[in-house]
Amino acid sequence: MPDLEVKKVTVRYKEKIAIKDASFEANSGEIVGFIGADGSGKSSLMHAIAGVKKFEGEILFKGHIYHNPKEAERIKQHIGLMPQGIGLVLYPLLTVKEHLDFFTAIRNLKKDDEYLQYRERLLKMVGLFEFQNRQAGHLSGGMQQKLSLICTLIHKPKLLILDEPTTGVDPVSRRELWQIIDEIRKKDNIIALISTGYMQEAERMDKILLFENGQIIAKGTAEELKELVKNYVYLETECKEECFSFAKRTYSLKPLNVPHADPELEAVFFINALKKYKNIPEINVEEREIKIEIPEVVMEAIGLTKRFNNFIANDHIDMVLKRGEILGLLGANGAGKTTFIKMLLGLHPIDEGQLILLGKKIESYKDRLELKSKIGYVSQKFALYKDMTIRENLIYFANMHQIPMSKALKKIDKLADGLGFKEYMDYLPTELPLGINQRFSVAVAILHEPVILFLDEPTSGVDAIARAQLWKLLHQLKQKWGISILITTHYMSEAEYCDRVVVLKQGKKIIDDTPQNLYQKFPDAKNFEDIFIKFHEEKN
Amino acid sequence: MNTGIIKAYILKEITELFRSKFIIMVYLLPTMIILLFGYGIRLEVTHSRTVILDYDKSKLSKDLISKFEHSKYFDTKVSNTTEDNILNEIKKGKVDVFIIIPENFEKRILKGQKTEIGVFVDSSLPMRGTIMQGYVEGEILNAAQDYIKNIPIRNLITINNRNLFNQSMRDENAIVPGLIGIILFVAPAILSALLIVKEKETGTIFNFYSSPVGKFDFLISKLSVPFFLHSINIFILFLWATYLFQVPFRGNFFIYWITSEIYILISLSIGLFISIITRTQIVALIATVIVTILPGFLYSGIIMPISSMTGSAYIEAHLFPVMYFNHIIYDSFLIGQGFSSEKNVIYFGILIFYAFALLTLGTLFMKKEMR
Ligand SMILES: Nc1ncnc2c1ncn2[C@@H]1O[C@H](COP(=O)(O)OP(=O)(O)OP(=O)(O)O)[C@@H](O)[C@H]1O
Ligand SMILES: [Mg+2]
Question: What string of DSSP letters covers A406-461?
Answer without folding.
Answer: HHHHHHHHHHHHHTT-GGGTTS-GGGS-HHHHHHHHHHHHHTT--SEEEEESTTTT
